[in-house]
Amino acid sequence: MLAKFAEAPALLRGYRAVAPEFDTTSLTPTERFVVLMTASYMHDCDFCMSAHSWGARRQNIDPKIVGALQAGQSLPDVKLDALRNFVAAMVNARGAVTDADKALFFAAGYSPRQALEVVLGLALKVITNYTNALAGAPPNAEFGEDVWQRRRKPSRTTASVPATESQS
C-alpha cells in the first residue's frame, strides 16, 4: 500500500499526516478500530480488513468485536454498536446523516466532537481503501489467519454525469 502511495508523493504525505492525527482523537483505541473496520468493511477493502484484524490481536481488542466487524454484524456493546451504526450511516449518506442518526449517536454517549473525529477516520479510510482498490493490493501473507476476503458482492454502479456543453 505504501509503495502505491509513493507513486503520488502528495498522497503519501497526506496519509502520513492524517493517520497519526486520528490516533490523537478522544475516541478510545477500540472505538477507533470500530471506525476503521466499519468503513473498510463497507468499502470491501480486503487489505485493510486483514491489516486491522491482524493489528487488533496485538492491541488486545476483544475477538468478539473483531469477529462481528469482519461479518458486518451488530456489536455486543451497545455504545460501540451505536458508533458502528453511525459510521455506516455516514458512509451510506456520504456524510449527510439524518437527525435521527445523530440523535442515536449522541444518546449513546458520543459528542459532536466525536462525530467530527469519525469524519477524520473516514477520510483516512478513503485514502487507504480507495488506494487499495485502485492498486488491487492483496493482504500481506504475514496477516495469516487474519486475512479477510470480500464476503459481499460489490455493488458497482455508474453514476450518470450530466453532459456539459463541451460533451454535447
UniProtKB/TrEMBL annotation:
The protein's GO terms of the molecular function aspect are: peroxiredoxin activity
Q: InterPro entries per the record?
A: AhpD-like, CMD-like
**Quick one: signal sequence residues?**
none
Q: Where is the Carboxymuconolactone decarboxylase-like domain?
A: 24-69
Q: Which Pfam families match?
A: CMD
Q: Where is this region: Disordered?
A: 145-168
The cross-references to SUPFAM superfamilies, in alphabetical order and at most eight, read: AhpD-like (SSF69118)
Name the residue ranges with Polar residues bias: 156-168
User: Per its record, how is this protein called by name?
Assistant: Carboxymuconolactone decarboxylase family protein
The record lists the lineage as:
Bacteria, Pseudomonadati, Pseudomonadota, Alphaproteobacteria, Hyphomicrobiales
